[in-house]
Amino acid sequence: MLVIYVLVAAFVVAASDWWAVRTGATSIEVVAKPLVMVLLIGAVIGSGPTGAALLIAVGLACSLLGDLFLLPVIDRFIWGLAAFFVGHLLFVAGFVFGADSFSAVGLVVGLIVGGAVTLTVGQRIRTGARRRDPRLHLPVAGYIGVLAVMLVAGQATGSAIAASGAVLFAGSDAVLGWNRFVDPIQHGRFWTHVPYHVGQGLIALWAIGL
Predict the structure, then answer these.
(1) Distance of alpha carbon 153 from alpha carbon 89, whole angstroms
(2) Which letter does DSSP use for residue 134 in this model?
(3) Alpha-helical regions (H) of the chain
(4) Which of 201, 207, 175, 203 has its CA nearest to residue 189?
(5) Which of 7, 94, 98, 162 is the most buried (most CB within 10 A)?
(6) What percent of the chain has pLDDT over 70?
(7) Per-residue pLDDT for 104 more than 90?
(8) b/e map of 29-56 (b: 16 or more CB within 10 Å)?
């Protein structure tokens, strides 16, 4: 029961973060954004995780570090990228070892969607990053690659919760990359935060159910 309360608290804090981003209340965002991840990690740990769920919990902790690095008041993009890169690797491992069954259909769908997005949106983001700073090209390209693998792994679990979480997380990163390197999106940070938190929440919920 406590885990449910923590998840509800995470949603409430996430909503306050979305409001803060939408209205420019930076002082609230600085607290709310990382607090969402703290609560999600607490919910997974509170469920007594072992094996795959523990991998997801550590992946969420890496996402927390990434959130801190990407806060506007800190803005250490490469550090944030590295933290999320490691987090995605842990999510992939969690999906692979925690799936109740392997979904061939999910794998095919993931490969098609992941490949299409990587070759279209991902390519535009890589090009934009290279134009912004040539040193960013390889880190951004590597990150897009591991993000695509995470997306595919989520679909292959056969779980609608994990699959949806992976898609939303990937969508959030696509918006972030496009907004930062290709063309500014109106309220782009808001549209980055909403699917990010919902996606992370779904991944945490999947881990809790393991």
Answers:
(1) 10
(2) G
(3) 2-23, 26-46, 52-70, 77-98, 104-117, 123-132, 137-156, 160-181, 188-208
(4) 175
(5) 94
(6) 100
(7) no
(8) bbebbbbbbbbbbbbbbebebeebbbbb
* Whole-angstrom distance, CA of residue 93 vs CA of residue 60: 13
List Cβ neighbours of 103 (8 Å cut-off, separation of 6 or more): 155, 156, 157, 158
Per-residue model confidence (pLDDT) at position 102 = 82
pLDDT average, residue stretch 40-46: 95
| Residue 86 identity (one-letter amino acid) | V
Where on the phi/psi map is residue 22: left (φ > 0), alpha (ψ -120 to 50), or beta?
Answer: alpha
Distances (CA, A) of 166 to 58, 106, 135, 139: 16, 12, 28, 21
Q: Is 111 exposed, middle or buried (0-12, 13-18, 19+ CB in 10 A)?
A: middle
Sorted by sequence, the CB contacts under 8 Å of residue 35 that are 6+ apart come out as 13
Considering the entire predicted model, what is its pTM? Answer: 0.95
Q: Tell me which amino acid residue 131 is.
A: R
Tens of pLDDT, residues 146-194: 999 999 999 999 999 999 999 999 999 999 999 999 999 999 999 999 9
Q: Residue 43 is which amino acid? A: A
Q: Which residue has the tokens 């959130």?
A: 67
Cβ contact 66:22 at 8 Å: no
> Token pair for residue 121?
């949106």
Tell me the two tokens of residue 192: 């980055």
